[in-house]
Amino acid sequence: MTPSFRLLAKRRFLPLFATQFLGAFNDNLFKTAMVLFATYAIYSDPAKEAGFNALATGLFILPFFLLSALSGQLADTRDKARIIRLVKTAEIAIMLIGAVGLLLSLVPVMLAAVLAMGIHSTFFGPIKYAILPQHLKKEEVLGGTGLVEAGTYLAILAGTILAGFIDARTTALTVLGVAALGWLTARAVPSAPPSGDTPPLDFHIVRASITLVSGTMHISRLFRAICAISFFWMIGSILIIQFPPLVKNIFTADEKVASLFLAIFSIGVAIGSVLINRLLQGTVSARYAPASVVAMGVCIIFLALTAKGWEGLPDDRLYGLAEFARHPAAWEVFLALLGVSVTGGMFVVPLYAFLTTTVAADQTARTVAANNIVNSGAMVVGAAGVLALSAAGIGVVETLYLVSGLCLIAAWIAWKLHCACD
């Protein structure tokens, strides 16, 4: 067993890992089931499908804009384990709302659940990274971060695949059961009290957000790391929004294939998360980040070229999973998707570890929260960009070409970070 995987046998790490894994699984099982339902059962227009997916993405990330400053303050001034338990209790109620929406096919109720899930993730997100330096040794933090990222994307994988194969009733029961299980694992997370002084909370969310971001972004190394991560999430949000319409309208395949696309993306990020830890051997560094994101851009272009030359079935029929896999160009699609996601994982994981190891222990959660605010802004820009491009008549394939250009900007920022800090 490698040193990183040995952490899974430690009580100081395993309950946190299990809790975040179950939460990520539940989020993505519900979100994917909802998006596939809207894409394949409600809408029949690519622009409307992309618009709905962008709306769902926007609702999910809205709480990151509004509440990240408060969540960061709470995580740095209160016991992180106690906050985790409160958040996981709220998840049960959120999933109950989502289950009702699925069972009754009520789109507004499902969207309300997505918004509530965004609030849940806003408060849990800073903690799952900020708690690691408290519970792990310095040389274990990068490995722990890699495992958290790999676990998150494997959970996304499991939830995404399952969403394409079970009905609404089974999904509703599953999300409720997993929320209850996550509540149990959260109770085993060891205490993580605040370090240093505990200043009073600022409940003025606009002022607190401005103060939080300005207090972090003026530090050049953090500014570059956060900007690089934000470009990754902008790229990722555009790709995930476009995957269902891309599968349905370009690759002419059904919802099981759309689920497979999202699953392959998750597998690749998990592989990249572990691979970069092995390459860096526990050292927090942006050494491989520029090359990784350039390679990501090349793989996106490869995916676009494959999509442009794709031949669909006659009579407007959709490929099933088995038929799609037998298509002569299917291996090119799978290879491109895997390449995009592996290189993406290799790019972003060291940058998250950089955020949590280069600041004081009592500032880590607020640093991650500031990062979440900027990231969510980048994702909003990405979602708005999808809506604007769709309205302008620019198709999915052309959008992929534009996205590949963003990878060059991310590479330049990562190279500046590497030169300044490594």
From TrEMBL:
GO terms for cellular component: plasma membrane. Pfam families: MFS_1 (PF07690). It is a multi-pass membrane protein. It comes from the Bacteria. It is found in: Cell membrane. GO terms for molecular function: transmembrane transporter activity. The chain crosses the membrane at residues 50-71, 92-121, 141-166, 222-245, 257-276, 288-310, 330-355, 376-394, 400-417. Keywords: Cell membrane, Membrane, Transmembrane, Transmembrane helix, Transport. InterPro entries: MFS (IPR011701), MFS_trans_sf (IPR036259). This is MFS transporter. It comes from Sphingomonas oleivorans.
